[in-house]
Amino acid sequence: MSSVRGRRGGPAADGRRATGRVPRVHSTRPVRAGLRSTASSRPGRRRPSRRPERRPAAAARRSPLFTGRAVVLVGLVLLLALTLAGPIRQYLAGQAELTRLAAEGEALDRRAADLAAQLERQSSPAYAERQARARLAYVLPGDRLVVVVDGEAVDGDAGTLAEAVAEPEPVPWYEGLMSSVADADG
Question: Which has more confidence, 103 or 63?
């Protein structure tokens, strides 16, 4: 019996399946020196790849800085940023406007409270009497009024003042000019 092939119908002596073809002895392409190993060539223990991995010349060069996916991703991020920039700006402006209006509303509330307190004060008769005495120089019957004019105290009725010194009657401009020329001429 041959070690390569067994009998017809029977299994081969070394465990190979009989195909009816003559086994190849010579390969059509040369085998490199480091490719053959001492491991058995059984189907269960086959090496993952018999050929060495070939790299094309273009792949051996440096890979590009930006890939197509990276460019698309950057474009989408920029588009998203441009799309959202307007609404975000409007939102922030609206928040600032709300803050300003809230502060203005608080100021108006304080002013309304002050005016309500002033109105309550003015409705009392004692306040009206004090204001009439201070602003309008009103006196009650039996009170004495003293008015200071130019640092001099003047006595009299509450509504009258001492007569002021009468000023000379104004002269027309041309008479004033003539009198000044005459004074300068001596």
Answer: 103
5: CB partners within 8 A, 6+ apart:
12, 13, 18, 23
Residue 56 has pLDDT above 90, yes or no: no
Say if strands 147-149 and 152-154 run parallel, antiparallel, or are unpaired.
Answer: antiparallel
CA distance readout (Å), 178 to 33, 165, 171, 183: 139, 27, 11, 9
Q: In this structure, are residues 122 and 128 in contact, taking their beta carbons and an 8 Å threshold?
A: yes
- Please state, rounded to an integer, the average pLDDT across all residues of the chain: 78
* Alpha carbon distance 122, 17 (integer Å): 122
Q: What is the CA radius of gyration of the chain?
A: 60
> For residues 169 and 112, which has the higher predicted lDDT (pLDDT)?
112
By three-state DSSP, how is residue 126 classified?
Answer: helix
Residue 160 has pLDDT above 70, yes or no: no
C-alpha span between 142 and 158 (Å, rounded)? 11
**Residue 110's Cα: distance from chain center in Å?**
31
Which pLDDT value is given to residue 45?
59
Q: What are phi and psi of 121, to 5 degrees?
A: -65, -40
- Longest CA–CA span in the chain (Å) reads 171
